[in-house]
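Worked example 3 (structure in, sequence out).
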């Protein structure tokens, strides 16, 4: 029977099958990793700190008894029970040879020819073996790196013992790293754990699952795309043909097909998409042939996954180009918008060192037309401009140094943007009709933007003009003060006040009444008219003549 570690060493007798004088000079040769050895290591290490009644008691082979009785009492020295339990959890064969004695592991090694002087991950290591029926201790090798061996064992430390892990460079047979002499290493003879196929070898369309769970995935070009319960019937997935794969392999499968994969809804439909970084981009009709997507394999994917992927944006920082080559520009994605990279910035800002993704031309046109959403915090990617900006109504608004932390902008993700694009966006006016307030709360007033002017609103204006139905955006206070101090909106701004139905257009700091025939297809649009308080339009001189 095994005992807890003690300081006194017992001399190896000559009957031992391992000669100390020969084996002491051996060098560590790490074994190749395998599901069995990795599993043994992970199982043993996960028990660190546990005592003899963990899991109701450690029980390994059929001839080993439990380390615990009644849920509270230690039955006997339990190092062999622990090592046997770890092996049993990983399907090691031949465990009928083991009993509650540490020496039974030496019996196992002799019987199956796995006794050696070289430690391998997953081995049992026996201490102070007397060459017959007794040894002081047994533990499990859980790591081999360079000249260091890591060992995890049960019934270690003071009575009643616990599971602990320790590393040593004194791993050679005959050496005593913790007061007991190492007698030998015993490798598992084999495993009765089922042998599962490598998922990478399975053809696309194969349904797979782990033996340890109910989730199902479909293999698409080496990835495992999740199959929802709602997909099974419309997508015609045959659950009777599921292939079991190793649990760790199942969990590590990429959840999206590789970039550039062309996909469609397995349930049907004419739309085709290309996968870019977990997002599915719609391929326009004019792109299908021009971009060469028609020459790629067209993969059916689960409906639920595709619907979600079609709503995702290409990750910020991804560098993209028109797959057709019609647009020679290069762009970087920032919060769903494609920002143009000038020729000088392409190399100066290291965009050329990133992977360049081809995307459908029609999709790219739409992304180029977008601006990063309000609230996105930006900086010049080159670092030439050290300022920080926040997007507000399509414009990049300056954030002062004091507001950077006081308003919490420092807590948001800071996105690098091409300098030329950023400069042009800083020069833009915040979109007409954007409703803003001071982000710091120092100014409780609410404003509506009209031609670059922040027009103050009373509560009656706020509700009466319908601005309470729009988002109220926080703006840097210093910028807002400047915008509120401007006298007149930019030329061309169209204003409407509640006192009449007259639409005014600003020209040269004055207002000019517009007639109905100024609006219509190819002309001005009522959508561009900003409702402002009567007092604001009243102070603007009227164009006469």
């Amino acid at each position: 029977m095994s005992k807890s570690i003690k300081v006194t060493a017992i001399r190896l007798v000559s009957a031992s099958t391992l000669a100390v004088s020969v084996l002491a000079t051996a060098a560590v040769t790490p074994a190749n990793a395998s599901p069995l050895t990795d599993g043994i290591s992970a199982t043993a290490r996960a028990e660190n700190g546990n005592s003899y009644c963990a899991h109701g008691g450690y029980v390994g082979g059929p001839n080993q008894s439990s380390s615990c009785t009644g849920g509270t009492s230690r039955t006997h020295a339990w190092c062999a029970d622990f090592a046997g339990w770890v092996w049993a959890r990983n399907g090691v064969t031949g465990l009928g040879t083991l009993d509650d004695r540490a020496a039974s592991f030496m019996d196992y090694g002799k019987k199956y020819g796995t006794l050696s002087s070289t430690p391998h991950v997953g081995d049992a290591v026996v201490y102070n073996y007397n060459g017959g029926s007794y040894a002081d201790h047994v533990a499990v090798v859980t790591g081999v790196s360079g000249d260091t061996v890591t060992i995890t064992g049960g019934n270690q430390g003071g009575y009643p013992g616990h599971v602990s892990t320790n590393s040593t460079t004194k791993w050679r047979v005959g050496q005593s790293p913790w007061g007991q002499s190492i007698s030998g290493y015993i490798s598992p003879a084999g495993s009765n754990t089922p042998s599962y196929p490598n998922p990478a070898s399975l053809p696309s369309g194969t349904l797979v699952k782990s033996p340890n769970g109910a989730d199902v995935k479909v293999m698409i070009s080496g990835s495992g795309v999740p199959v929802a319960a709602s997909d099974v019937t419309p997508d015609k997935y045959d659950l009777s043909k599921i292939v079991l794969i190793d649990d760790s392999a199942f969990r590590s499968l990429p959840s999206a097909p590789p970039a550039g994969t062309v996909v469609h809804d397995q349930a049907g439909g004419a739309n085709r998409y290309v996968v870019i970084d977990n997002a599915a981009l719609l391929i326009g009709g004019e792109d299908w042939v021009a971009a060469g997507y028609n020459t790629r394999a067209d993969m059916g994917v689960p409906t639920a996954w595709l619907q979600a992927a079609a709503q995702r944006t290409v990750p910020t920082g991804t560098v993209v180009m028109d797959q057709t080559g019609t647009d020679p520009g290069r762009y970087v994605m920032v919060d769903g918008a494609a920002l143009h990279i000038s020729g000088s910035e392409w190399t100066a800002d290291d965009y050329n060192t990133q992977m360049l993704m081809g995307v459908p031309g029609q999709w790219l046109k739409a992304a180029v037309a977008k601006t990063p959403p309000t609230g996105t915090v930006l900086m010049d990617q080159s670092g030439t401009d050290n300022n920080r900006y926040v997007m507000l109504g399509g414009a990049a608004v300056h954030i002062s140094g004091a507001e950077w932390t006081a308003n919490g902008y420092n807590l948001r993700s800071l996105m690098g943007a091409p300098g030329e694009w950023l400069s042009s966006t800083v020069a833009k006016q915040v979109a007409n009709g954007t409703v803003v307030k001071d982000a710091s709360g120092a100014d409780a007033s609410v404003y509506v933007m009209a031609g670059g002017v922040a027009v103050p609103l009373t509560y009656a204006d706020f509700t009466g003009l319908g601005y309470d139905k729009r988002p109220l955006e926080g703006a840097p206070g210093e910028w807002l003060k400047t915008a509120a101090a401007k006298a007149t909106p930019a030329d061309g701004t169209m204003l409407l006040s509640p006192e009449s139905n007259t639409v005014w257009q600003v020209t040269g700091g004055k207002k000019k009444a517009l007639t109905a025939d100024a609006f219509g297809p190819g002309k001005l649009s009522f959508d561009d008219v900003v409702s402002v308080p009567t007092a604001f339009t009243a102070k603007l001189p009227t164009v006469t003549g």
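Notes: The two ends are 113 Å apart (CA to CA). Residues 35-45 form the longest helix (11 residues).
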